[in-house]
Structures are given as C-alpha cells and as structure tokens.
Amino acid sequence: MPIDNLKPVNQQDIIPYNPYYPGAKRSWLPLAISLYREGKLEGQRPIEGGKAIPFIATWTVSSLPLEQTRCRLQFDGSPDLNYEVVLKNEDFIGYLIEVIRNYQREGVIDFPKEFYRQLLKLPAT
Question: Which InterPro entries does the annotation name (predicted)?
Fold first, then answer.
C-alpha cells in the first residue's frame, strides 16, 4: 500500500509503543504502525551522482515493542542483492517513522542512514 493511502491505527494500538518514543515521534506512531502491519515497502535508495536503486523490503509482523522483527531488503530485483537484519520492533518502527517523515518532506520512500548501517553491519558514526 502506498504511504499516501495508509490509514492510521487507533489509539489503543499505539499504547504499548508510547513509552519508547519522545513526544514529537509519538504523533507519527498511528501511521508507522499501520505501515508496519503491511509487512512490505517498496522504495528507492538514492545514490549520490547516480540513479536511485529500487528496493523491496519485507518483514515479519508481531504485536509487542520488544519482540523481534526480521527485515529483508532486495535491491534492484536481484537475488544477489538481498540483505537481512533483525531488530526490536521499537527500533524498526522508529525507522518507519523516519521513512514516513522523509517521504512527506522529500517525496522519496527510503530508510534512514542508521537503518542501512545496521542492515550492512557498519559501525555507527
């Protein structure tokens, strides 16, 4: 489902997640949890000086913030460009908040740099 068509979840659904997000991010939870429940996202990773690379992200869905989410990204439709990361739901939904915010600012569906650092197992900067 395109981000523009997401329907916010009800307040009852966000209660378990509220303690994990400061006030500003908390307002994005209804849309982020809605996107999380889709279990799939298609986007593009911008490449500096080059053409953006399309990706499809899929993930397992569970209901509690401290449970694990296994996320797989496939770039450019290539089986050789498959990556996987396991994160706590609270962290993954935080990344989805950034995806939605970035989309509303720039019109691009992409994960934040911090997500890619974890996906590619790069050290934090």
Answer: T4P_EbsA-like
- Is 124 part of a structural domain of the chain? no
pTM (predicted TM-score): 0.92
pLDDT at position 105 over 90:
yes
Strand locations in the chain, DSSP E? 40-45, 53-59, 68-75, 82-88
Q: What are the pLDDT digits (tens) for 15-51?
A: 999 999 988 899 999 999 999 999 999 999 998 888 9
Residue 29 lies inside a defined structural domain of this protein: yes
In single-letter form, the type of residue at position 112 comes to: P
The residues facing 58 across adjacent strands are: 40, 72
Task: Please indicate, yes or no, if residue 64 is contained in any of the structural domains.
Answer: yes
Residue type, 17: Y
Local structure of 72: helix, strand or coil: strand
Task: Judge contact between 94 and 88, C-beta under 8 A.
Answer: no
